[in-house]
Structure to design on (252 residues):
DNA sequence: TTTCTATTTGGCAAAAAAGCCAAGAAATAG
DNA sequence: CTATTTCTTGGCTTTTTTGCCAAATAGAAA
């Protein structure tokens, strides 16, 4: 099914939408419940128009949905599984950052990733 | 923790890396086990150099890892939770495509998303 | 109505990503 | 050694994305 070009493009679109710091920050904030654009704008600090465009990217991708009430537009998450995955990528990143810090401090703490996914088909890391 | 700029950027990098059809296709193929560059190149059909650059993007983001054996370089997944999330985004996309097809055929089958995540804080879709 | 507040859209310039070709590296075969 | 295979890197052009400003839109309030 993944070989279907359309399917592949749509799925990639979801990841692409999440692949921007500001958008990821907003999506993360929406994990706690829906927020209006002005609240999200305060959160990321960008121009309102920029935030609005980011949100439309997320919406087009199907990551969020929106509802207009009064003069406000409220956005909410529309991707159930995101929570679990964010926790996973989060822990991966945390470990990688820690490892890098250790290297900088000349104290190579963890030599390899301790991430739950670590596999070792070969002894190297190419 | 998400407010940490570095953390946010690194995590976004993972999503950005996955946000390209060719890269997503390769990552999906790697779910079945490690593959060498030439096999991945055959799969996506792009120039070898293009494939190699895509793989380096995935590697830099921490999505895959690689091992050199002989003249070949083998890539493998390095993100445990990806499997679950891909299934989730996959089912979401599948539904969205089906819904769009239904609209085109003038047979509005599913009025709203039946995705496990569907929420309804408001009756609209802005 | 006018005015305000909240949001979206158009347009544009700067920055980043994509993808090709050619050239470089590295292990292997002869 | 040279030649071959496999992969990576440099350079370059085209395309896409980003993010600002200004203008348009849409409710709410006066």
């Amino acid at each position: 099914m993944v070989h279907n070009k359309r399917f592949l493009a749509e799925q990639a679109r979801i990841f692409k939408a999440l692949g921007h710091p500001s958008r990821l920050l907003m999506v993360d904030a929406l994990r706690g419940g829906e927020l209006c654009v002005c609240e999200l704008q305060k959160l990321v600090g960008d121009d309102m128009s920029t935030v609005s465009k980011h949100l439309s990217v997320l919406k087009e991708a199907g990551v969020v949905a929106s509802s207009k009430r009064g003069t406000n537009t409220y956005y909410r998450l529309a991707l159930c599984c995101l929570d679990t995955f964010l926790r996973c990528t989060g822990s991966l990143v945390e470990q990688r950052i820690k490892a890098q810090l250790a290297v900088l401090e000349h104290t190579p703490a963890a030599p390899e990733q301790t991430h739950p996914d670590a596999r070792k088909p070969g002894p190297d890391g190419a």
The beta strands of chain B are 35-36, 64-69, 72-77. Residues 27 and 72 of chain B are 18 Å apart (CA to CA). Confidence is low (pLDDT under 50) at residues 109-126 of chain B. Chain B touches chain A through 63 residues (CB under 8 Å).
